Amino acid sequence: MRSVLAIAVVAAAAAAVLFLGSEAQEVKQGQQHTHRISEHRHGEGNRLQINKMYWDPKCICNKNAGSAGDVLEDDPVGRLKVYVYDLPARYNKKLPEKDPRCLTHMFAAEIFVHRSLLSSAVRTLDPEEADWFYAPVYTTCDLTPSGHPMPFDSPRMMRGAIRLLAERWPYWNRSEGADHFFVTPHDFGACFHFQEEKAVARGVLPLLRRATLVQTFGQRRHACLQDGSITVPPYAPPGKMEEARRLLPPGGTPRSTFVYFRGLFYDAGNDPEGGYYARGARASVWENFKSNPLFDISTERPATYYQDMQRAVFCLCPLGWAPWSPRLVEAVVFGCIPVVIADDIVLPFADAIPWEEIGVFVAEDDVPRLDAILTSIPVEVVLRKQRLLASPAMKRAVLFPQPAQPGDAFHQILNGLARKLPHGDGVFVKVKPGQTVLNWTAGPPGDLKPW
Ligand SMILES: *[C@@H]1O[C@H](CO)[C@@H](O)[C@H](O)[C@H]1NC(C)=O
Ligand SMILES: *[C@@H]1O[C@H](CO)[C@@H](O)[C@H](O)[C@H]1NC(C)=O
């Protein structure tokens, strides 16, 4: 307990130093300074209270606090049977062998869903009894030298895989994919482009328009999210996160930081004029709060990033190029209340995880009022959110551990697929021989080249 107190005192002292530093700066700026300083004073007062009030060690120890709800605990076994196509290894296994970075980046779910399915109790080796067909295609494992996943070959690769399975097995043609699912975790899912405008112009790869897409991208009324898709969390390495949790004393530490964020505010390389990246929301966070002592925000990601999140009350999860980022998963795992700034976002497993109750949602236009919005949330509400976040069920549901565990993200995907059963009449296409519903040759000519 003594060390916990010591940390709180150090944090308060650090906050005071930070406060004095910004006050000194503000005084030089003339005109507005009185107003700004009084805001800082107000903020500082809150910060000192935060150390005392927003940390309730009891809630961290009580594992049953804040039941996550029945849906999160659903068991998919016995409710669906999945047939896994055996595709040539160049569509899947060979790729991470060539570039192991694919196993750890934020799109790695496509690999772990495949591995988990192979040994899952829901797998069937008899396609005749399958409810769902799954084709393991790792479309995000094409990395630039600096490790950024490139989606440019993904449409050709996907088309190649579908052509292959449609020729070898009879199941694709009878439904044109409506009882098939694919994992497409790129920024804009199966639109296969990382820039939104281009992704929207492409639309979902035509061959996948009847299939169920398991994807990270989720935004309401968007060309890259078709009805019936399953939105999943991005991949964050469970082992590393568990290690970070063990580094802190059991029972946790005081949450002495009010708002925490590490990441880009501007993406000068891809958005030199500004305004496109994060639709300006991240730039607004920086411009408004860079010298606010309640905000610990910076572009530099320290080695203590994971520990720092465990010491924060609120963790900002603003949109970047896409509405989501791994911060959402990190915030849940580290019990830091996610502050979602991404209008119209569709959150992962929204039918199972009570996002409204655990998170805070701030409209992109309201970013300049972020400090007022967060400081006005009653302490009881904050403590309740922290209690819900402390539930192990919540953390399990956003992670892809290997091997898979009951209640983890893989199981939530299976639950999502089970909830879509039985398939409706519309699944099996009734067309004359030789005719199809989907157009095999639609799309940019470059996509048609064999993969
Ligand atoms: C399915 O349809 C495609 C395109 O019409 C055709 O090339 C393929 O041979 C068909 N597959 C089977 C198993 O009949
Ligand atoms: C399929 O799409 C291509 C390219 O847009 C188009 O030229 C072709 O006519 C379409 N085929 C059918 C059967 O609609």
Automatic annotation (TrEMBL):
Signal peptide: 1-24
One Gene Ontology cellular component: Golgi membrane
Protein name: Exostosin GT47 domain-containing protein
One term of GO molecular function: glycosyltransferase activity
Lineage: Eukaryota, Viridiplantae, Streptophyta, Embryophyta, Tracheophyta
Family label: Belongs to the glycosyltransferase 47 family.
Pfam families for this protein: Exostosin_GT47 (PF03016)
Any one of the GO BP annotations: glucuronoxylan biosynthetic process
Record's bilayer topology term: Single-pass type II membrane protein
Coiled coil: none
Cellular compartment(s): Golgi apparatus membrane
PANTHER family associated with the record: EXOSTOSIN GT47 DOMAIN-CONTAINING PROTEIN, EXOSTOSIN HEPARAN SULFATE GLYCOSYLTRANSFERASE -RELATED
